[in-house]
Amino acid sequence: MNAEGWKRAFLKTLPVMAGYLVMGAGFGILFRVNGYGPVWALCMSVFLYAGSMQFVGISLLASGASAITVAVTTLLVQARHLFYGLSLVDRYKGAGFKKLYMIHAITDETYSLVCSTEAPEDVKPHAFYFAMSLLDHIYWIAGCVLGNLIGGFLTFDTTGLDFAMTALFVTIFVEQWQSTKEHRPALLGAILALVCLVLFGAENFLIPAMVAITLGLTALWKPLEKGVRSDG
Fold first, then answer.
1. pTM of the model
2. Residue 186: which region, alpha, beta or left (left: phi > 0; alpha: psi -120 to 50)?
3. Using one digit for the tens of pLDDT, what is the confidence trace for 40-84?
4. pLDDT digits (tens, 9 = 90+) for 130-179
C-alpha cells in the first residue's frame, strides 16, 4: 500500500491510538507493580493482545492460577470474537497470508473500524484493513511497554487503576446502545450477568456469565441478526 493509504489508515485510527496509549500504559504500570518487566509486557501485548484479558491475566498470574483456569477464562472472556470472526468472513475473504494476522489483531476497537470504514477507492480493501489492524496493535504495544517502563519510577498507590478497562467497556456499551435500535443483545448480556452475579457471587460469576451469554446469543442468533440488518 502506498504512503497515502497508510496516511488515511493512520487518520482513521487516531481515536484508537488515544485510547490504546492510555489503556496500554495502565496495563503496563499494573504489570510492573506485580513484578513483570518490559520484556514481559512486550511479549504479552504482541502475542496475547487482548486488552481485557491482559488485565485479567495480571490477577491470574499473581494468584498462581492453573493452566486450565487460564485457558478457560481466556476462551470465555474473548468468546465475543467468535461472533466478530463470523461477521468478517466476507471482508477478509481472499486476503491471503494477511488474514492470519488480521484475525489475531481483531479487538473491539479494530473490529468497529473495519466494519464501519470503507477503504479509499485507490486502495485495496484488504491492505487498508491490514494497515488499520497493524497500527492499532502498534499503539497498544507502545502503551504497554511505555507504561511498564514508567511504572518502575512511580511511587504512588496504583489501587483502582485497573478500573480503567471497566470504564472503557462502559463507554463502548453506551456508544453501541446509542448507535443502534437493536438493544436485545445488550439487555440479554446485562440480565444474564446480573443473574449470575446473584447466583455465584462477585468472585465466581464471570465464567458462568460468559457461558450463559454465549449460549443465549447463539440461541437467538437468527432473530438478532434480522434485527441488526433491519436497523442498518
1. 0.73
2. alpha
3. 999 999 998 987 788 888 878 877 877 787 888 788 778 778 778
4. 999 999 999 999 999 999 999 888 776 766 666 766 676 677 678 777 87
CB-based contacts of 177: which residues, under 8 Å, 6+ apart?
Answer: 183, 186
Domain map (residue ranges) of the chain = 3-178, 180-232
Between CA 87 and CA 27 the distance in angstroms is: 29
Contact 148, 28 (CB under 8 A): yes
Residue 86, CA distances (Å) to 17, 21, 32, 81, 96 in order: 26, 28, 36, 8, 17
* CB 109 within 8 Å of CB 78: no
Name residues whose C-beta falls within 8 Å of residue 184's C-beta, 6 or more positions apart in sequence: 220, 224, 227
Q: What is the DSSP letter of 93?
A: T
Q: Crossing angle of helices 184-200/221-231, nearest 10°?
A: 140
Can you say how many angstroms the Cα of residue 164 is from the centroid of all Cα atoms in its chain? 13
Alpha-carbon distance of 165 to 10, in angstroms, equals 24
DSSP string across 93-115: TT-TTHHHHHHHT--HHHHHHHH
Within 10 angstroms of residue 204's Cβ, the number of other Cβ atoms is: 12
> What is the Cα gyration radius of the chain?
19
- How many Å apart are CA 114 and CA 108, to the nearest integer? 10
